[in-house]
Amino acid sequence: MISSPQSSRFSVASILKWAFSGMVLFFLIAPILTIIPLSFNAEPFFTYPMPGLSTRWYEEFFSSDVWQLSLHNSIIVAVASTVLATILGTLAALGIARPGCPGRGIIMGFLISPMIVPIIVTAVGIYYFFADIGLLNTLTGLTLAHTALGAPFVLITVTATLSGFNQSLMKAAASLGASPLKAFFNVMLPLIAPGVASGALFAFATSFDEVVVALFLTGSQQRTIPRQMWSGVRETLSPTILAVATLLILFSVVFLITIQWLQSRSKQNR
Question: How many Cα atoms within 13 Å fall on the side-chain side of residue 67?
């Protein structure tokens, strides 16, 4: 069977497109991939070739009191802010998605403003506000700040999920005697759960990776992983930072895979 010139041109264009996309992707991730081997360097140098392989920098991360305190603080703040951001963002999305919501565009723009305003402006504003109410150098203050940063991601994700939700299901549940709260937990929440979970993951990643606000609001006892990495780069450049960066890269890969799986589940539910 002889292929037509048109199909041949299509094949060549497809190959060129994939080749160009592959080169762009390699250009973007190549600097990241160079970090991973250096985290196993036996010597405290950031150079190739490496004299040997060792896991000493990972051992130092898991045995260092400073790094473990930072990890402990990051987990506490990320989990707490994720719970708060998920609750607030979901409630806001439910209100905005209701038919006939007045001023929907203005409300939506106001609620997602933490995503639009430069982070340094947000950090300065939160710093002066928290200084007046005594929340500086506390994990509570950092948790509230990260909640404000993470809630817009939940809002956008849940709002997008609700756009494909059939509101007649809630009317059917009400006609069968279910209260609005019971209808939400038994009918709506199971169907929009992938969207809620996706937003929660975005909020968790936002908190766990945030450094600018943490620099303004935290002291030595409230420092998080990103702030400790920032301090390490400025003060003592150690390969332990590369080990932590490698672990964060693995976390990001798992995070992206989970997001893709949740999005596929959300499409199936729709």
Answer: 17
